[in-house]
Design brief:
Rossmann fold; alpha/beta; six-stranded mixed sheet; 453 residues; 3 domains; Nase_comp1_CS; Nase/OxRdtase_comp1; NifE
């Protein structure tokens, strides 16, 4: 692969761990390099990721129809009740709207939608064109909220303002306008909010079940299977538990400053991190030792059921190599541990939204020779997969063709999957998928590529 070079502006975003060779910190938190064809998404995309799992709200995209293509069906989030979030609405701005402004169109769209669907709230997403023409969506939202009696929340998510991480913050700004507006009566002292769990395939239900078995009340999940009324009373919880640090740490810090609610970071992927997430919450309530005992009981029962199956997978997978390229770096940490528990090593680890602290931790966790990348692109991923002779690529739907073209297994660990991978049962699903993909007999008909593309 020597003939494939790294783009000149990308070298500082790639690091290979080598013993005794000091290297500078990896560059991150920058806009994608032009021409790189990388995976970094826009502000609007980030805001939609965080907010649209709120299932009993209207989600209206103020802008051209193309932006509304980013719908529930691209990144699923299942609901136990209402499914308004599965409908993608747009004001469909046309040329004359751009010239004369789209505020009237936004107002009439909101009134019509609220009358028809009777939502608990409405989120209005501002797109690039709206930022350019200067529509005052705050004024429209305020007017509609007064007339309809429900929260109508502007989300300032103009795509050109930054990256996906800026979209997370825009979404959290909107959520903060809701938090604190509901009653906190009858909320237990032993209660938490789960932040950054989006219930892509029912994971929020699995995690909630574990905590409830421990005697912990879950006030709100932000935002998987989310409800407006639950969000409004989230300030009554005793502790915030942050799963997706990239999307929700800002919100956790704001709630700590405004309401005095501390937060901890957790991960629900793999046996080790899933167990730790239960123990860490239990430790926060030392006056209730029964909570810790219940946590130990949950872990013991789940691991006792899971462990024998994992040993079967480990026997077949020991010595195999994996490449990881996912959205958040915190997920990468857990994946490395989970893969090691089934005998696999990691030769490539990368993310779209990691920060300097995340990459410093990755350097500590990874073995010698591991390549660490930020905001990578298909050519880079192909180069390193071939050079490191990976047997598996873990990523999202955009990475799937790379794996199959190179003749290696693939595991979807991002938005588009339909099988839960969090929790103890999720660890089984993950190990099974890895085993079936890596060990599939199909690779004899599509053998792994050599050192050239």
């Amino acid at each position: 692969m020597e003939q494939i070079s790294i783009l000149e502006g990308r070298q500082k975003q790639i690091f290979e761990k080598k013993k005794g060779v000091p290297q500078a910190d990896i560059a991150c938190d920058t806009s994608s390099l032009s021409g790189s064809v990388s995976q970094r998404a826009c502000v609007f995309c980030g805001s939609r990721v965080v907010l649209y799992p709120v299932a009993d709200a209207i989600h209206l995209v103020h802008g051209p129809i193309g932006c509304a293509a980013y719908t529930w069906d691209i990144r699923g989030a299942v609901s136990s009740g209402p499914e308004l979030h599965r409908l993608s609405f747009s004001t469909d701005l046309q040329e004359m709207d751009v010239i004369y402004g789209g505020e009237k169109k936004l107002y009439h769209s909101l009134i019509e939608l609220i009358e028809q669907y009777k939502p608990k709230a409405a989120f209005i997403y501002s797109t690039c064109i709206v930022g350019l023409i200067g529509d005052d969506i705050d004024a429209v939202c305020k007017k509609v909220a007064k007339e309809t009696g429900i929260p109508v929340l502007p989300v300032h998510s103009e795509g050109f303002k930054g990256t996906k991480k800026d979209g997370y913050k825009a979404a959290c700004h909107a959520l903060m306008k809701l938090i604190g507006t509901g009653s906190t009566e009858e909320i237990s002292k032993y209660s938490i909010n789960i932040l950054g769990e989006f219930n892509l395939a029912g994971e929020a239900w699995i995690i909630r079940k574990y905590y409830e078995k421990m005697g912990i009340e879950v006030v709100a999940t932000l935002t998987g299977d989310g409800r407006i009324d639950a969000v409004r009373r989230a300030h009554g919880a005793t502790l915030n538990v942050v799963q997706c640090s990239g999307s929700m740490t800002w919100l956790a810090k704001e709630m700590e400053e405004k309401y005095g609610i501390p937060y901890i970071r957790v991960s629900y992927f793999g046996i080790e991190d899933m167990s730790k997430s239960l123990y860490d919450v239990a430790k926060y309530f030392p006056d209730r030792p029964d909570i810790m005992e219940a946590a130990k009981q949950v872990v013991s029962e789940e691991v006792k059921t899971l462990y024998p199956s994992l040993q079967k997978f480990k026997k077949a997978l020991t010595g195999k190599k994996a490449a990881i390229y996912v959205g958040g770096a915190f997920k990468t940490f857990s994946l490395i541990k989970a893969l090691r528990s089934i005998g696999m090593s990691v030769v490539l680890a990368g993310s779209q939204t990691g920060d300097k602290n995340d990459y410093a931790r990755l350097k500590e966790m990874c073995d010698e020779g591991t390549v660490i990348v930020d905001d990578s692109n298909p050519v880079e991923l192909s180069k390193f997969i071939l050079e490191k002779e990976a047997d598996l690529l873990i990523g999202g739907v955009k990475e799937r063709p790379i794996a199959f073209k190179l003749g290696i297994g693939f595991c979807d660990h991002n938005h588009e999957r339909k099988i839960p991978l969090a929790g103890f049962e999720g660890m089984y699903n993950f190990a099974l998928e890895v085993y079936q993909s890596v060990m599939s007999p199909v690779w004899q008909f599509a053998p792994r590529k050599g050192g050239t593309l």
